[in-house]
Design brief:
Rossmann fold; 281 residues; three-stranded antiparallel beta sheet; elongated; alpha/beta; six-stranded parallel beta sheet
Length: 281
């Protein structure tokens, strides 16, 4: 079992003295041990005709308008990879920590794979700031309601498979009959509260007595805002990851931070147990 450093208990005791929540911020690194790639690298390239599209080109509203069937095929393949994966020990530890802390817990996740919810975290306390690949919504925005992908959509979608008329029938808004889109935040879109819990996430950061950052390199805006705000407040921060990141710099700036270098599987289970123990001491 991985041994936590001696400095962790004073930091957690400092966090326990406040009235705010423990906030966990997770990224792709927590799902890597479940076998889910980031899709920003070679695994995410998608061939349309004779051209290979980069993930940052596919994951845009502009691409969806220009070639909706191809974008849907890419997301259905990504979903098949996510559905084939299972929550790992780090996901399960985070879910157990929520059960221990209840309303003193908030999870902010960049991951669209749904593994936190499948591990047992509640939708109410889980802010999926980049969406969830298991859901769709109206592309024309007749409603912001989220709709689970219909059972008629094959959960084992093969890479390179095309969307046909049968799938187009299922990928429709049940309210207006128009085209549906994946419920994800695309690169050419902005965070908001209704879909992606922007204000809720910032409020949690403003009240957090402890921020735990797991498996994110800090390449997106809202997570960086969360880390910066907690650091400016001088609140305790623990960063788990294989390499230093902007969040390790935030931890140093806070004056009460630790960097646990390694994998989520190594550090998150003992860290979550220790947080629960110190809270209940």
């Amino acid at each position: 079992m991985t041994q936590l450093p001696p400095g962790i208990d004073p930091l957690l005791d400092r966090a326990r003295a406040g009235a705010g929540p423990v906030v966990l911020l997770t990224g792709a690194g927590i799902s890597a041990e479940s076998g889910i790639p980031t899709f920003r690298g070679e695994e995410g390239y998608w061939k349309v005709g004779s051209r290979n599209y980069h993930p940052q080109e596919m994951a845009t509203h502009a691409a969806f308008v220009a070639m909706p069937d191809e974008v849907w095929a890419w997301y259905l393949y990504r979903r098949s990879v996510c559905r084939a994966a299972a929550p790992n020990a780090a996901h399960l530890a985070v879910a157990e920590l929520e059960r221990e802390l209840e309303n003193r817990f908030v999870l902010v996740t960049q991951n669209v794979d749904g593994l936190h919810l499948r591990a047992g975290n509640s939708p109410e306390r889980t802010y999926q700031i980049h969406g969830n690949i298991d859901f769709m919504r109206c592309a024309k925005e007749c409603s912001t309601a989220l709709v689970p992908l219909p059972a008629g959509i094959d959960p084992q979608w093969n890479k390179g498979r095309a969307v046909g008329e049968a799938e187009r029938t299922h990928l429709r808004c049940p309210r207006c009959g128009g085209r549906a889109r994946p419920h994800v935040l695309w690169f050419d879109e902005c965070y908001d509260e209704e879909r992606f819990r922007f204000e809720s996430s910032m409020r949690a950061a403003a009240r957090a007595e402890l921020l735990v950052v797991v498996g994110t390199a800090g390449q997106t805006n809202l997570p960086l805002q969360i880390g910066s705000l907690v650091a400016r407040r001088g609140a305790p921060m623990v960063v788990v990851g294989p390499e230093p990141s902007p969040f390790t710099a935030f931890a140093e700036r806070s004056g009460h931070g630790l960097f646990l270098q390694g994998t989520a599987g190594d550090w998150v289970p003992p860290l979550c147990r220790r947080i629960a123990e110190r809270r209940n001491a």
